[in-house]
Amino acid sequence: KQQDIAVIGLAVMGRSLALNMADHGFAVAAYNRSYAVSEQMAKNHPHPHIHIYKELKDCVAALKKPRKVMLMVKAGKAVDMVIEQLVDLLEEGDIILDGGNSFFEDTIRREQALRKNGLHYFGVGVSGGEEGARFGPSIMPGGNKQAYDKIRPILETIAAKASDGKPCCTYIGENGAGHYVKMVHNGIEYADMQLISEAYLQLKYIGGYTNTEIAKIFKEWNAGELESFLIRITADIFLASDDRSSQDLLDVIADSAAQKGTGRWTSIEALKQGVDVSMITASCNARVMSNLLAQRHQAQILYPDRKPLQRKNDAFVETVRQALYAGKILAYAQGFALLAHASSQYDWQLALGEIAAIFRAGCIIQARFLNDIQQAFTKENPASHLLFDPFFAKQLQTHQQALRDMVAMSITQGLAIPAMANAVSYLDMFRSSHSGANLIQAQRDYFGAHTFERCDMSGSFHHEWRRDHE
Ligand code: NBP
């Protein structure tokens, strides 16, 4: 029997995706560079629809035409190495899909190169970790639109299904669009996680709540407008106890966070595009600073912590909740603003509403309020920015005071809340009638004759500043 699709790379993600495809009845040809990994998979996860091949050429030869080969190998040069091997084994019209976290510029380059060989190349963002890949991820495919129809049945079948039954997979755009959207998804994920950890610090060090109490608070939050995968798993995290000590597990986990790079890519890309994603950047920096454990320890002596306050009451918890929700709206608004800008920059015609829709299940940032974002961007004449949408404008009008209060309280208390602080600054820059840029223009003209524009007449002006103070 001929195989429907090949999965190359059988580490955690490839294995899970292959099993997911096989569960849905697709015949999967599976291959891993190190055969021992393949054997391990055959032993631990045998499946009647998965056929394992020792040689890549045999794996490819077993495929129905046009052949579909999905790469789930480490992002970077491994992808180029596998493509190089595949080029000789594939023929015109065949399709390579890269399901890893590849940098979108690499995807643009690879798509262009393979097009010359008559091959279709899809950069496919896959979110949801192992669990998502195994039982239904959110999938963001970018590549040739006509060729999408050939891979659509497989991708849409294995994708997560949102509450309305729709698959969390949709054609995103040409070349690197899918990986771009995945990158921004991860950037938003960074900001969302940072906001949640700031709310945790506030509940603990201003509110004086215990982990068990915070778990209960998060459970309650998850029944309302904050409902999301991240809030749900965080509630569980507060309840886990350490089996090596009698402490809560969270309290023995080292306070220093790692990063693999997709958040940083988002931040660098946004700077290049001239789009403000300050909350994502702040979240990357928070992880960077968290790693300076020795320095932080030393600085503690010079600048000690304030004594935790005991603001334990329901009104305080509600203020934290509203601050978190307002922060979350602003973080997603920044991410979607970057997508909107990139869409025209790269000529991708990104459908922001569709993108919000496929984030509703399967992925790490899945959240109830993505339904509202979807609606905001799919209505007739959608707003140019999420903060102009009437629903979100109303939400922020009612919740922004809580965000300001929590930022002020945290700063007074000496708690690091970079995402929330940047959320307030972003909102204030966004809505400000006086940004201070008039003074900056004057300074630029003073020292560099950069010229300035006037409010009352058009044209470009220069002033001989030095004379004023001589
Ligand atoms: P890894 O990113 O750890 O990659 C391991 C796989 O790459 C193995 O199959 C390995 O084969 C293969 N590989 C390497 Br390394 N170099 C190779 C080469 N030169 N030629 C052929 N194969 C090579 O696996 P993963 O964690 O399953 O992730 C796969 C992709 O999915 C990555 O891009 C990752 O960023 C992305 N992703 C991961 C997650 C997650 O939660 N883990 C979520 C979303 C996306 P070997 O066994 O022979 O070394």
From TrEMBL:
EC identifiers of the protein: 1.1.1.44
Enzyme class: oxidoreductase
Pathway field: Carbohydrate degradation; pentose phosphate pathway; D-ribulose 5-phosphate from D-glucose 6-phosphate (oxidative stage): step 3/3
InterPro entries: 6-PGluconate_DH-like_C_sf (IPR008927), 6PGD_dom2 (IPR013328), 6PGDH_C (IPR006114), 6PGDH_Gnd/GntZ (IPR006113), 6PGDH_NADP-bd (IPR006115), 6PGdom_BS (IPR006184), NAD(P)-bd_dom_sf (IPR036291), Pgluconate_DH (IPR006183)
Domain 6-phosphogluconate dehydrogenase C-terminal: from-to ranges: 178-466
Recorded catalytic activity of this chain's protein: 6-phospho-D-gluconate + NADP(+) = D-ribulose 5-phosphate + CO2 + NADPH
Source superkingdom: Bacteria
Binding residues for substrate: N101, S127, G128, G129, H185, N186, Y190, K260, R287, R444, H450
SUPFAM superfamilies in the cross-refs: 6-phosphogluconate dehydrogenase C-terminal domain-like (SSF48179), NAD(P)-binding Rossmann-fold domains (SSF51735)
Active site residues of this protein: K182 (proton acceptor), E189 (proton donor)
Keywords per UniProt: Gluconate utilization, NADP, Oxidoreductase, Pentose shunt
GO molecular function, one term: phosphogluconate dehydrogenase (decarboxylating) activity
A Pfam family per the record: NAD_binding_2
Subunit structure: Homodimer.
PANTHER family noted in UniProt: 6-PHOSPHOGLUCONATE DEHYDROGENASE
Functional summary from the UniProt entry: Catalyzes the oxidative decarboxylation of 6-phosphogluconate to ribulose 5-phosphate and CO(2), with concomitant reduction of NADP to NADPH.
Family named by the database record: Belongs to the 6-phosphogluconate dehydrogenase family.
Protein name: 6-phosphogluconate dehydrogenase, decarboxylating
Organism: Longicatena caecimuris
